[in-house]
Design a protein that fits this description.
about 450 residues; alpha+beta; 5-stranded antiparallel sheet; about 50% helix
Amino acid sequence: MSDEFHEPKGSAVPRGRLMRAGRMGGLGAGLMGRAALGGMAELARGRRPRLSDLMLTPANVTRVTDQLAQMRGAAMKMGQLLSMEAGDILPPELSDILSRLRADAHMMPPQQLKQVLTAAYGRDFLKRFQRFDVRPIAAASIGQVHRAVDRDGRDLALKVQYPGVRDSIDSDVANVAALIRLSGMLPRHMDMAPLMEEARRQLHEEADYAREAHYLGRFGDVLSGDDRFAVPAVAHDLTTPEVLAMTFLAGDPIETVADAPQADRDRVVTALIDLTLAELFGFRMMQTDANFANYRYDPATGRIILLDFGATREFGPDLSDGYLDLLRAGLAGDTAAVQRQMEVIGFIRPGLDPAQIGVIMDMAEMGFAPLRDPDGFDFKGNDLADRLRRRGMAIGNHQALWHIPPADTLFLQRKLGGLYLLATRIGAKVHVRGLIDAYL
């Protein structure tokens, strides 16, 4: 029976700050112990070991990834955020640990799920549903999603938060920061505190289901007249601090559009880019997490289903107008104006010498050049990302260039980078300049 709480197995989410801190402390101690043994072995061979080489061995990478994935919550989410925000400057081994955490988490075992639902709805919670599927349809860092049908026959998706996640955010962030410092791979002058604080703030926001329900409703309102998109409706009567209930919208993974005719691929990606521009320059409210799982596609209607509004941010006019000015300068090929705007937005920090600024400006030009093409930009088989990555290695190899831009800029870039990867995966050709011109 779908409403019996047995059958699928998972790993329990560690609860309580002390238990979670103990897990992280044990992980760090284990890494240091293995590093010490490896260091003695290297010395016995007559070689002077580097701490970073000893800490980030393939075996340690696997241990760290597995432990953070099992902990879920902020520990896992921090890894996801850092892999996106600082991926270009972190060492490859550390980036590998963090990027692996973008995959789905372990699901809660049924008994722990039952405890959460009992706390949310009471001991007789099953009486609220005609059907409740114990096996989740998705599991991530903050919670997992279950499909259900309530007594009124509504087909629902219930986003159930992992127990203890909200209360452990601050300690988890501090512990992950300590683990990163322990790796010995970051330069001493690099201040990760602003990024850590912003990640902590966003995690508290993502764990606030009342806030997410608010933005789910707002996006539903602003897109209500746009047939290209569908947004679930909040089921307020079943929404609690631990459970976000919404209508279930059936759809396929967005990546399946890659198998559709070229016209459909172009249409879908054009719609997503147009939506992102509207979020930045029109709504000034953006869902900043471009994880592919946050989009679904309904082939019957051709609509794009938008999911997960926990990472929604509102942008002020300064950022919105600053990006418009940057686009104007870049499309016009005005290098001096591009540099000025990149300094304003925070991509270029004060004090860099001309050679260092040149590296960043080269990357900016790579990004703007395709936007000027009157024939549109063909994402399929395009090597722009590889060229940017290769050029970006100059930043990774020179610590003087290591710099974390302001938080709003980082989260906006995360959205743009994820959208580029999705467009490339789908293989679309889009007249991006035409979409931008509507706002210039």
